[in-house]
Design brief:
This protein is an alpha/beta fold. The protein has one domain: Rossmann fold (3-Layer(aba) Sandwich), CATH 3.40.50. Helices cover 45% and strands 15% of the residues. The strands form four sheets. It has a six-stranded mixed beta sheet, with helices on both faces. Helix 16 crosses helix 18. It is globular and about 60 Å long.
């Protein structure tokens, strides 16, 4: 299987090369030339199977023979073995036909662990076999950085540089990145917002000389392998609730559109999905775009759900590419400067609405939803999950349709926001105790491409090698 750029200016790559590259050299995102299809018989055969079996079924289709079966299964098993729940992503019922899928049982207590733990092992295996090093430069609004630091810590062939917006992630999120003592992990506190971090990373990717000198790669949701690994939990939930014979809806808290894009790809692969609900906080560019067809970035407003404090949603490009009939020239023109915005055509918006709906929750809505959920179910949820629950409650679905809200983070990662909502301080998992006391390591840097590039050039082992 070949992977092509959404902007049409890059040579097609195989799965392993696309995984190492991360972002396409023309600034676009890699997507498969065609989506592999899982037959209804194949989906039915996965009912009741372990999460690992579903993950192999998905990833083996995208790897298309590039990774030996034994090796791929071993990497998946090792990755999922880092989770504390036997089901990996268990479902909890919170109302009639309404379920929460807990995606926070991995090492950093956030949904990013599901894909990141697998991606780290795949990349390390590929690099070792090729006798190469890589330099990962990634932007995070909180959870991606923590998951990357944990997954890649100590990797012999990989250095990781994590850009996070200084003062705009929770204390727990920051400490999960900055207390990693391994020499290959470098955290950079950028004087700006997440969009500044993301802008810098993209600029470094398209600088061919810099990219080649440091052997640059990326692991946030611009990396197709991350999206592919996340498809698994959509299958896991849908098949547990009556699929493939019964359609299921999903409410997905999202800022960069990567998590919900995985649901879209699951649908393209043959999983029957009634609706994918885009749940946003007050940084609601995705809600506005899905309602009006106008994608117009604004100013990032800090919130109690900081992982969604984004106004330039990278993965939306992959969806628009498909909506446009895979018209790469159109995407290159519209995405040349994402901050200027663009419009979907009437046909593109109409097609999007056949599968997607959206909802919005500001900080006050989020606080109330945390309190309401606790009062009605006794469950304590984090603010991102609360945003998803509000969107799910407002969804217009056929009677009897199960809806799954993705619970993307453990409430202990956002204790102040949780306590403000329900009056209870979440119990701190044992995994966080050391994080909250260990010394931190971080470098403050201006929101400037050259400043970040200088740090990477100075520290990356791929340069000296």
């Amino acid at each position: 299987m070949q992977y092509i750029s959404t902007r049409g200016g890059a040579q097609p790559l195989g799965f392993c090369d696309a995984t190492l590259a991360g972002l396409a050299p023309d600034g676009g995102l890699f997507v498969p030339e065609t989506y592999p299809v899982l037959s209804q018989e194949t989906l039915a055969s996965l009912v009741g199977r372990p999460f690992e079996a579903m993950a192999y079924t998905v990833l083996s289709r995208f790897a298309a023979g590039e990774l030996p079966e034994v090796a791929l299964k071993a990497d998946i098993d090792a990755a999922m073995g880092s989770f504390t729940h036997i089901a990996r992503t268990p479902l909890v019922q919170v109302g009639p036909d309404h379920f929460i899928m807990e995606l926070f049982h991995g090492p950093t207590l956030a949904f990013k662990d599901v894909a990141m733990q697998t991606l780290a092992r795949l990349m390390d295996r590929i690099l070792k076999e090729r006798g190469r090093r890589a330099t990962i430069v990634t932007a995070t609004s909180g959870d991606t950085g923590a998951a990357a630091a944990e997954a890649f810590r100590g990797a012999a062939n990989i250095d990781v540089f994590i850009l996070y917006p200084d003062g705009r992630v929770s204390d727990v999120q920051r400490r999960q990145m900055t207390t990693i003592a391994d020499d290959n992990i470098h955290t950079l506190a950028v004087a700006g917002d997440f969009d500044d971090c993301q802008r810098i990373v993209k600029a470094l990717f398209v600088d061919r000389a810099f990219n080649e000198k440091v052997a640059m790669s990326g692991v946030n949701s611009i990396n197709w392998a991350r999206v592919a690994a996340q498809i698994t939990y959509y299958l896991f939930a849908a098949l547990a609730l009556g699929g493939p014979q019964r359609k299921v809806a999903f409410s997905v808290p999202t800022g960069n559109f990567g998590d919900i894009l995985a649901g879209y790809v699951a649908h393209k692969m043959g999983l029957p999905i009634e609706k994918l609900i885009i749940a946003t906080n007050q940084n609601d560019i995705l809600d506005r775009a899905s309602r009006t067809g106008r994608y117009v970035p604004g100013t990032v407003s800090p919130s109690t759900s900081p992982s969604m404090d984004i106004q330039v949603s990278s993965n939306f490009e992959r969806l628009v590419f498909d909506l446009s009939g895979r018209n790469a020239a159109s995407i290159a023109e519209r995405m040349a400067d994402p901050r200027t915005g663009f419009a979907l055509t009437e046909a593109e918006l109409a097609e999007m609405k056949t599968l997607f709906a959206s909802g919005r929750a500001d900080d006050e809505d989020t606080r109330r939803q945390i309190g309401r959920t606790y009062a009605e179910t006794g469950l304590i949820v984090d603010p991102h999950t609360a945003v998803g629950l509000k969107a799910a409650a407002e969804a217009d679905l056929p009677a009897g349709t199960p809806i799954v809200t993705l619970s993307t983070a453990h409430p202990a990662k956002f204790p102040d926001a949780v306590e403000a909502g329900c009056g209870r301080r979440p119990v701190q998992p044992e995994r966080l105790e050391k994080v909250m006391t260990d010394p931190e390591r971080s470098t403050k840097v201006a929101a400037d491409v050259a400043a970040v590039a200088a740090i990477v050039l100075e520290r990356a082992r791929a340069v000296t090698a």
